[in-house]
TrEMBL record:
Record-given protein name: Glycosyltransferase
Cited Pfam families: Glycos_transf_1
Domain Glycosyl transferase family: 213-356
InterPro entries assigned to the protein according to its UniProt record, in alphabetical order: Glyco_trans_1 (IPR001296)
Superkingdom, natural source: Bacteria
Assigned keywords, A-Z: Glycosyltransferase, Transferase
Gene Ontology molecular function, alphabetical: glycosyltransferase activity
Key word Transferase present: yes
Keyword Transmembrane helix: no
EC number of the protein: 2.4.-.-
């Protein structure tokens, strides 16, 4: 009889509802644990912000306990934690639920070694990327100050830092002096795909969204660093050459934060009369997005900066080719299977879009189940072997 005690890991689900990258990250993380052998599956206590309650329905895992938690005012919790020498975001969770680990504990106003005295306990932080160091112009002054302050406290007080790529790890070592005692873990995120959703009726969806039979797909939020401009410039070049190429864009275009960027994109579309070459689909259901991705000629990922692209991970899970900007992290993620261009080179991108043969139906990447199991095993290993 197997009497091995399951690891008990607390997962903090306390992101802003508007940051879908963080939301999807946690949903995928817990669901990926289903790919482990039963004896290796940890018990997960998910502490969720009430505003994210609707997303907890997307998590299906046999050893899951949902606990609604109000994490309180960020600034007050930091202040009182420092005054009392206790991490008020997490210490009560560890004690009440007898946790072996907690993740991602990004708010660490006091040293973890003082806050958590349980032998073998691992409090691991996760930080997606250091975009603010490379493109500070994409942040407000207050955002930069707050991000940097929280990050420096995290690096001062955490013993375990989880990063999504070796590229991001190199950025941390470039900009910060990391303590020798802090362990850095690189955990490559992998996307779980709803097979039923991705196998939807593509003919109906093409009709619904008025798409041609052949199209490329860009599936990013309309933020400056996502670099939609290079795609529109490439389409303008192709139109001048009478090359018929169509690109569909998903995501909410209207945003009070990015008005200058949105205006630039609209001007490119209007000045080059690209309306018949593009489809602005807006925010669409996830099942529609997956099916459109699966049947696209390729996914185009033109970003100026990424930590580890969820869109690329979706494409890999769907076995769809990707044409991406030649960022180090994109090359790390796609390897020799990727097709790359420099992020400001619309001529090269135009050439690729015009000549790309498509590779639908081919097994381009590692087997889906193997990737998810590796992701899950690497996550559990951060917290040690089973008790």
């Amino acid at each position: 009889m197997n009497t091995k005690k399951r690891l008990k890991i607390g997962v903090i689900f306390n992101f802003s509802k508007s940051w879908m990258g963080g939301v999807i990250y946690v949903i995928n993380l817990v669901n990926a644990l289903n790919f482990l052998d039963d004896e290796d599956k940890p018990e997960i206590i998910l502490f969720y912000n009430p505003t994210l309650a609707e997303f907890t329905k997307e998590i299906q895992y046999p050893y899951l306990k949902l606990v609604q938690r109000n994490f309180g005012n960020l600034y007050k919790q930091y202040l009182f934690s420092m005054l009392k020498g206790k991490n008020l975001f997490a210490e009560s969770l560890v004690n009440e639920f007898d946790l072996d680990g907690l993740y991602p504990l990004n708010d660490q106003p006091v040293p973890a070694s003082k806050a958590f005295r349980k032998p073998g306990f691992v409090a691991a932080a996760w930080f997606p990327d250091l975009q603010h160091k490379f493109y500070p112009q994409f942040f407000t002054k207050s955002q930069l100050i707050l991000r940097e302050a929280r990050l420096r406290l995290l690096l001062k007080n955490t013993d375990h830092l989880v990063l999504s790529s070796y590229d991001v790890a190199s950025h941390f070592r470039k900009f910060y002096k990391l303590r020798d005692s802090m362990k850095v873990h690189v955990l490559h995120f992998a996307s779980i795909i709803d097979e039923k959703a991705s196998n939807g009726n593509i003919d109906q969806l093409r009709e619904k969204y008025k798409l041609p039979a052949s199209y490329y797909l860009v599936s990013n939020q309309f933020h400056n660093h996502k670099n939609h401009t290079v795609v529109l410039k490439a389409l303008a070049l192709l139109k001048a050459q009478n090359e018929k190429v169509h690109v569909a864009f998903t995501g909410k275009m209207e945003s009070a934060i990015n008005q200058a960027y949105i205006s630039e994109l609209k001007a490119l579309i209007s000045d080059n009369a690209l309306d018949d070459r593009i489809s602005l689909l807006g925010v669409i259901p996830r099942q529609d997005q997956l099916c459109l991705m699966k049947h696209a000629k390729a996914i185009v990922q033109p970003s100026l900066f990424e930590g580890w692209s969820t869109v690329i991970e979706d494409a890999i899970s769907l076995q769809v080719p990707v044409i991406a900007s030649d960022l180090d992290v994109n090359i790390e993620q796609l390897g020799e299977k990727g097709i790359f261009f420099k992020p400001h080179d619309e001529k090269k991108l135009a050439e690729l879009l015009a000549s790309f043969p498509g590779r639908q139906g081919q097994a381009l990447y590692q087997k889906y189940e193997d990737r998810l199991k590796t992701f899950a095993m690497n996550f559990v290993s951060i917290f040690g072997k089973q008790r």
